[in-house]
Structure formats: structure tokens, C-alpha cells
Model the fold of this input.
Amino acid sequence: MVNVVLIDDERLARTELKKLLSEFSEIEVIGEAANANEGVDAIKNLHPDLIFLDIQMPGKTGFEMLGDLDKVPNVIFTTAYDEYAIKAFEVNALDYLLKPVEPKRLADAIQKYHLQEEKELYAATTVAPGNRNLLEEDAQVFVKDGERCWFVKLSEIRLFESVGNYAKVYFGPNKPLILKSLNALEERLDERVFFRANRKHIVNLRMIDKIESYFNGGLLLDLKGGEKIEVSRRQTVKFKEMMSL
Done:
């Protein structure tokens, strides 16, 4: 069963969407909310698998509401305005449905959810025993920097860089800052994928383009984004042990 919460300030829109969703036997609407604040409460209390989220609502927008959440469920945006489409996909929403929602488009969006769940289930079953608090490589994480926000797959992040009490997150052309220490991030990351190269950097091993010898017995990693990261001498020993046959 897929537990769903509908967040939309228009009651008729929620009623119509609920009617459309009743055609899907695996979908159960467990809650509704008429604004962002109610939406945050519903998500925190009900822990839905999937939310259908309007963008333009009184008070906060749907994008702003996501920024108030510590953990974000899968999101399908529903809106009457197509100008938000690009931003919706920038935050890696599963889909973006224009009102009035067409049954075929709704079916496609739900199929995308099922495909995403299959990927996450596979990733979860490949995590080493005892490490169930780790973020899976294929997990989507929510990143917010000021007014901008993204949903990004962990596998797309090539580098974390310590900047005081913050961490800079490198993915694609983006480098937002998040209020997390590198040590806190390291505890949640799978060391088979993310490697602590030095005091200031954690690198995604799958994003390394080239490895060069460096002075003092260290290494220099060339990442796919063009960054060059030094591996400390101490971590070089660990790196070589991990990467050797």
C-alpha cells in the first residue's frame, strides 16, 4: 500500500484528485492539508510515502514548505501554472501535473513512483548488515541553500567540502552550502562509495576521473567536475587498501 497525503488549498482540487486516485488499488489517501503549515504537520505525523503538492498556496509556496522538512517524501507537484515546471524538475520531483489532472498523466506519475521505489528497495538490500542508518547511494536527499532547493540523488554528489560549520555540496554545476559538519555527514554515508580524503573533503569514489601521486606520499584525485582533491598521507594508505585487489 502506498500512503499518500494531498496538500492543496483548493478543497475541490483535493476532492477531484482523491477521486482519480481511488482508481488505483495500491493508493490510500491518509491525509489532506490546505496550506504549507498543515502540510508539514501532516507529513511529520503521518509519514506518507508520497505527497501530491500544490505550489501556489496562501502563506508559503510548496517549494518553501519542502524547505521546512527534515525528511522529504517523494513529491508529485500539482499546479495550474506551467511556469514552475523547470524549478520542479530542478528539485528532482517525481513528476509535475497540470490542473485539471488528466488520468493518463496521473497513471504515468504513479508509475514513476513505483519505479523509484524499486530502485530504492534494491539499494536498501545491498547495504551492509548493521548499516541500516546509512543513506543508500540511490537515495534522494533534499538540499536547501537560501531560497533555492533541490532534490538530488546521493550518487550525483561528487564532493562534500567543509566550510566552517557548513558543508559545500558539489553536484552538476551547483555548490550549495548546508548547515552540516563533515563528521555528521560521514556518519550517514556509505564508506564504500564516499571516502574521507582529508580533513576538509569527502569524495564520491565513482566520480574520480584520474589518480596521481602527490608530494609527501599522498595522492591527488581528479574529479569529474574538474576539482582536484588531495588525499592526506594517512588516508592514502587506507585508500590504497580499499582500491587494491
About this structure: The chain is about 30% helix and 30% strand. Residues 123-132 have pLDDT under 50 and may be disordered. Residues 140-243 form a domain with the OB fold (Dihydrolipoamide Acetyltransferase, E2P) fold (CATH 2.40.50.1020).
